[in-house]
């Protein structure tokens, strides 16, 4: 799963026994050489689906990490792009990897908790990639409300969601096992490291978005393939502030 330039088993163990924030600070220099980084083909599929919904002036990458989503927004937004994350280490890596260019939108990197955003309603598009496992289900409505509050009327919040693995499949068992281990770890060890793969079921997510005040649609991402029944392996949730 990891390249020789990625983290060692010992480094991963130290990170997993740290807090979520401290763990990502430690992982940041090698994060882009792990499977945790959103694959380029996912980023490209999302960009392709969002482009017809523009133009966009200002974009926000929620829980931006090292800035994979910032790169998408820089190609979609005309004026400015902001990445927000609570890990100073991840922000530093993103800033170094994506320097400001004179012919693109202004890019800013802000350290903040996505559950307490302090921006005014100034963004046309917000995206997030691979971060929702760091929020407990009870925190999800508050998180969505924060994103809703920083979007202009008509602004969109978009994120990809993969189809759930088939019950009993190797992937299903692996994710179930990982979440079980994390629950035991967090019950026995402090500080907690919040990361779960099975706490973001699409029907509940759509209900939370609707209750927050979003109009929601699902767009297929055909570039990422289809399941045997013909349904897409991955969809893009596009939640519009009414």
TrEMBL record:
InterPro entries: Methyltransf_25, SAM-dependent_MTases_sf. Residues 60-155 form the Methyltransferase domain. Pfam families: Methyltransf_25. One of its GO terms (biological process) is methylation. This is Class I SAM-dependent methyltransferase. Keywords: Methyltransferase, Transferase. The keyword Transferase applies. SUPFAM superfamilies: S-adenosyl-L-methionine-dependent methyltransferases. It comes from Streptomyces sannanensis.
